[in-house]
Amino acid sequence: MIQPGDRGDVVTAVTNTLHRLGLIAAPTDLFSPEVVDAVRAFQQARGLTVTGQIDAGTQAAIEEARWKLGDRTLKVESPIMRGDDVATLQSRLMEMGFNPGRVDGFYGPLTEKAVSEFQKSVGVKIDGICGPGTVISLMRLMRTVTGGAPVQLRDQAVREKRGPALADKVIVLDPSSRSDISNLTFDLAQKIEGRLIALGVSVFLTRSATSQPTPQERIAFANNTEADLVISLDIDKYHNEKAHGLSTYFYGSDSHGIHSIVGERFATIVQRELIARTDLLNTRTHAKTWEILRLTKAPTVLLEIGYITNPKDAARLADPNFRDVIAEGLVVAIQRMYLSAQEDAKTGTLRIEDLRKAGVRN
Question: What does CATH list as the number for 157-357?
């Protein structure tokens, strides 16, 4: 952790990038108040938790930000290449109708395949490596190509193909294993699991009642299931007990101009559904680049269901009946995402037994 007042080569490297991004006047080896403000602005723009300090996640994001498309040759290698140059490449390929997967800044097999398809279309060497020749061809073609949002069209087509029924869906529930809330989140996950299984959904939990997988293990597990949706269940905490309320998060990055269409849609639906059914304060939906949202292949939403440090929220969450209300609202929100407008109902009024009438199961 790099904090205000620290000095050294790491601070110099960080401030070099912040200077190139136009966030500070000049590089420095001192973590000064000006640098704190620049770090906060960077974190805000990148969808990171805004602290003004440089933790591992912020330092990795600053390292990614130093790369611009054309600075280096991009290819699949180990460790995986990551950076803003990769994200720019993915975004531009996507705008032209090629599918590099999610705009996540990681040069993986899907991005390599999209580059190969682009190379084939413009008649350059097909090797899946984005070197100077490929970048030049990309820049030339970008001047002549404008379009809509192919990724949105793909997402919409996939949803329409799968239809409104829940019986063929795969959903991963990811209950937090943080020691102070692990029992609550696991119990909530089980309540949701039971309701979804009754509707014919294939449900996977990323952990057992006692296991504590790492974030990387949870992401890998979710990706291996080929899920339609991943729901991460958490309860916030804060040093001030007055903080309270419900927030939902989806993958999005203002700096890359990209966000998860399905993730944002579900985050909005579940936020409205749970606020309508409870008296939790509405602290809204937010785009973030946290790894659980960024690296999970399926649309992923993280819920912060109140604050365990707030006496009123903690008392609600300790009540099994309240957790039943949350579970019911989440299941209904899942179905609302797949229902047609004609089959949908007013937020907060649809019940699980109503889902059968909407054609969820025969």
Answer: 3.40.630.40
CB-CB contact of 323 with 184 (8 Å): yes
The DSSP output letter for 29 is: S
Q: Is the pLDDT of residue 77 over 50?
A: yes
Task: Place 96 in a pLDDT band, splitting at 50, 70 and 90.
Answer: confident
On whether the CB atoms of residues 59 and 15 are closer than 8 A, the answer is no
Which residue would you say has higher pLDDT here, 167 or 299?
A: 299
Q: Does the pLDDT of residue 145 top 50, yes or no?
A: no
Give the number of C-alpha atoms closer than 13 A to the C-alpha of residue 183, restricted to the C-beta side: 7
**In this structure, what is the dihedral angle of CA atoms 59, 62, 63, 66, given to the nearest 10 degrees?**
-170
- Which is higher by pLDDT, 200 or 167? 200
Domain ranges of the chain: 9-65, 84-148, 157-357
pTM of the entire structure? 0.76
- What span, in angstroms and rounded, lies between the C-alpha atoms of 60 and 65? 9
Average pLDDT over residues 180-208: 95
Longest distance between any two alpha carbons in the chain, whole Å: 66
Tokens of 273: 């559904």
| CATH architecture of the domain with range 9-65 | Orthogonal Bundle (1.10)
Both tokens assigned to 43: 């974190």
The fold adopted by the segment(s) 84-148 is Muramoyl-pentapeptide Carboxypeptidase; domain 1 (1.10.101)
CB 94 within 8 A of CB 154: no
Q: Are 88 and 72 in contact (CB under 8 A)?
A: no
Range 199-223 average pLDDT? 93
